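Notebook B, p. 112. Complex prediction, attempt 2.
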Amino acid sequence: MAMTEQEILAGLGKIVNEITGVPAAEVTPEKSFVDDLDIDSLSMVEIAVAAQDEFGVEIPDDQLKHLKTVKDVINFIQA
Amino acid sequence: MSKDRVRVVVTGLGATTPLGGDVASTWSALLDGRSGIRTLTEDWVDTVPVKFAGVAAVDPGEVLPRPEARRLDRAEQFALIAARQAWQDAGAPEIDGERLGVVVGSGIGGIGTILSAYDLYRSRGWNRVSPFTVPMLMPNGSAGWISIDLGAKAGAHATVSACATGAESIGYGIDMIRSGRADMVVAGGTEAAIHGLNLASFASMRAMSTRNDEPERASRPFDKGRDGFVLGEGAGIVVLESEEHARARGARIYAVAAGVGYSSDAFHISAPEPTGVGGQAAMSRAIRDAGIAPADVVHVNAHATSTPVGDEIEAHAIKEAIGGHATVTATKSMTGHLLGGAGGIESIFTILALHERIVPAIANLDDPADGIEVDLVRGEPRKLDGDQLAAINNSFGFGGHNVAVAFTTV
């Protein structure tokens, strides 16, 4: 049932591309959303809501602020 | 004309309208007398008595990348597209951002965003409302986005005066340059209001044409058979520049943005004051501000929306303020009424009439109303003769706002 890191990464890449235009291939685990991908806080909210739909995992606001990198989100979804 | 005041010129034009996705296609359609009005196919159309409008000829979603489009209201999309066109048309000069301003308003703001966000909020809860909802619905959103896009830091402003918005924005832009706050200003208006609620609201005022069987013939300013205005959408934005700045960089100059006149009717929130004294005052003040004489004004792009009461009052005001010699056109006969965008595109048409010395004819003017004592352009476009010419764009809005912008040849 649990998704693999690769599956989550592919799904996240699609979401980030749809919302921000950043190419999905640039969405790699070590990247920081703010510092590397230049994604602002409003778009992060959109990404979180879309990820919630895609992966069926709720990301509360107090957790969202700790999810700095793509890997952080993957870990959160897998946990 | 006063020599010690900064002269403001127009060096760039941008538009997206029911007639075309840019200025060139829109202008050529106007000279051909084509209509941008068509029957609507949205599912809500059965719920309203008006079943047609001037939908933008080019969907903004086809022009803007999707990630950009999805965080912009449709009115902001139009504004950003028109502003980028205008800036390119002006040569996209290198300029200190502190000397570049923006004045772009909308009559209503992001009403499409408000309505769809409300639907989402009701059906799926607060969490599904986009975090971009507020910047999409605020009427100053276009000014903000354009300032970001161009790096304009002299100030970003959004005038709001219903259907006078676009003209008032250009007036404010002229003042920004005259007062020394900026060397260049991107100014104009935008609107995206084709939605069942808006058609219902205007129809409820009995302000709209219901000529559903002949949408292309429905907008007929000054014609005896007119029965209301036709809603359009889009944006018109110009680049204003101090003449000194424009000359120094060798810019192409379309016209001089010579003056602006304002007045308010202080009469009724939506009905025009019956003697037209407010519109007349705005035109007279624009003429004075431009340092010209009424006889110099050879052309007026009338506000003329095709409502039964407004058009004749405006014709009378033009006669009183300028005289019977002015050739008058009413381009809403082809574009429909872009509300906050109207003063933007119609200022562009006024500028192009001077620049190319030709005035588009009023479409659908089969049988002019009685008692009109100005020179309505009918049938074919009219050539303008002479060296030094002046023209005025009128824009009037609910609330009693009257704005006249005077342009002259270079």
